[in-house]
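Section 5: illustrative case.
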């Protein structure tokens, strides 16, 4: 299917999937039938119910329910009443982990990514392997990237604030 990443790619530990998403290509078929491709340049890992920075840490809420499904689905939510965040669910059913797409080539910041991709609530739960409007294609494996703590999660406290679970492509 055009080099799409299979769901099995995502059905692994989030700390394996997140850095391997760097360099992969998000493909978006827009309503006007134009197709655009975007290289993933920055991601953050959120690891299940024990990770206090992860939405799943509050349990299987209406907002986080899709995170408890098996990997390969989009997890989309609204922040500040204006920005749609695109995440990819990882792991097996009930792992409740996801990767936030923080940057794509030429665009930095998850709110800007959602806006550029024209993501909205309708994408929540979308299966990226069979979707006809958004998917992720394989690309050459990235060997150069850096890690750092995640951004904007002070509410989670330590050790979660300091976990080096933000992965950034080095050009």
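Designed sequence:
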């Amino acid at each position: 299917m055009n080099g799409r990443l299979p769901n099995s790619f995502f059905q692994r530990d989030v700390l394996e999937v997140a850095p391997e998403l760097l360099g992969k290509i998000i493909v978006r078929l827009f309503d006007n039938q134009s197709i655009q491709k975007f290289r993933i340049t920055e991601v953050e890992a959120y690891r299940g119910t024990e990770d206090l920075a992860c939405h799943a840490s509050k349990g299987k809420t209406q907002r986080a329910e899709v995170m408890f499904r098996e990997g390969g689905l989009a997890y989309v939510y609204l922040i500040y009443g204006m920005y749609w965040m695109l995440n990819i669910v990882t792991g097996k059913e009930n792992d409740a982990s996801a990767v936030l797409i923080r940057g794509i080539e030429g665009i930095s910041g998850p709110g800007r990514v959602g806006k550029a991709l024209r993501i909205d609530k309708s994408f929540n739960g979308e299966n990226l392997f069979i979707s006809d409007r958004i998917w992720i294609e394989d690309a050459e494996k990235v060997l150069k990237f850096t890690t750092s703590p995640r951004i904007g999660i002070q509410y989670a406290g330590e050790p979660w604030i300091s976990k080096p679970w933000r992965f950034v492509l080095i050009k």
